[in-house]
Amino acid sequence: MKRALAGLLAVGFAMLSATPAQAASTTITVPFKENQITWFTTARTITVAGSNIDAQVALGGVMQLAWYKCGDRNTRGAFVRMEETRKHVGTNFKAGTKFCLASNSPYTSGTVGGTLWWSGN
Fold this sequence. Notes:
Residues 1-23 form the signal peptide. It comes from Lentzea waywayandensis. With 121 residues, the chain is mainly beta. It has a single domain (22-118), classed as Mitogen Ypm (Jelly Rolls). It is built from one helix and ten strands; from the N terminus they run H-E-E-E-E-E-E-E-E-E-E. The chain has one helix at residues 2-17; strands at residues 24-32, 38-39, 44-45, 51-57, 64-69, 72-76, 80-81, 87-93, 98-104, 110-118. It is globular.
C-alpha cells in the first residue's frame, strides 16, 4: 500500500512539475520588394518537434513569405501568399531546426506588419 501511494505521489508530482511546451511568437514588420526576394537573417529555433511556422499580416494578398535554413538559401519552403488570417508558412519541423524568413511580391513593394508563430503551435 505504501509503495502504491508513493508511486501515485511520484506520478502526480511529475505531472505537476512537467512544463508544457510554450509556443513562440513575435510581431513582425516585413519589407518586401516587387519581383525580388529579400532574405532576412534573424534566426529562430524550433524547440518542439512537429511544430509549424505560421504568419498573419495586417494587409493580405500583397506579399509572400517563405522559410529557409539560415545560411543555406537552397533549403527552403515555397513562398506562401500572406493574408489577414493565420496561414502556414511551413509544417512539421524537427526540434532544433533553425530557420529564417524571406519575402517577395509579384505585385508591388512596401512594408507590412503582422505576427509570426513557431514551436508548439
